[in-house]
Amino acid sequence: MNSAHPLDPDLTRPSQNGVYFVGDGDLARLADAGRRDELAVCRTDLTGCADKAGLLQRLAASLSLPADFGQNWDALADCLRDPAWLPGWGHVLLFDHAGDLQRDAVVDFDVLLGMLDDAATFAQDAERPFFAFFSLPGHHNA
């Protein structure tokens, strides 16, 4: 996982896939870049999110997960590794106010980071862009 990202990330390059921590002001720019590059862009607001159940509900809605999504970690991992249900030749996932989850549900936050990192590696092996950006307090805008 990366604590910072390039000033102008090339979201079309799977070699740069990964999970990145950014400042609040970066998410709009990253969303614009993803849309410009015709990637699927999904934004999840984590304001007040304090547990696994709330996190999974928000992800199901913001990522438009399939109706048969099992509301558990294994189901989420499967969806992230094979995002065929989400149109796009690559994916950019944006997480607003991630500090709430990081503070209130450390284990769940870490599990999510690991899953996203795994999905990014899996996508890189398939030569498909996959990026996750978390807006966290204390990270400066790039």
From TrEMBL:
Q: Which InterPro entries match?
A: Barstar (IPR000468), Barstar-like_sf (IPR035905)
Name the Gene3D superfamilies on file: Barstar-like
Barstar (barnase inhibitor) domain: from which residue to which, for each copy? 40-134
State the Pfam families in the record.
Answer: Barstar
What family is this protein classified in?
A: Belongs to the barstar family.
Protein name per Swiss-Prot or TrEMBL: Barstar family protein
Q: Which organism is it from?
A: Rhodanobacter hydrolyticus
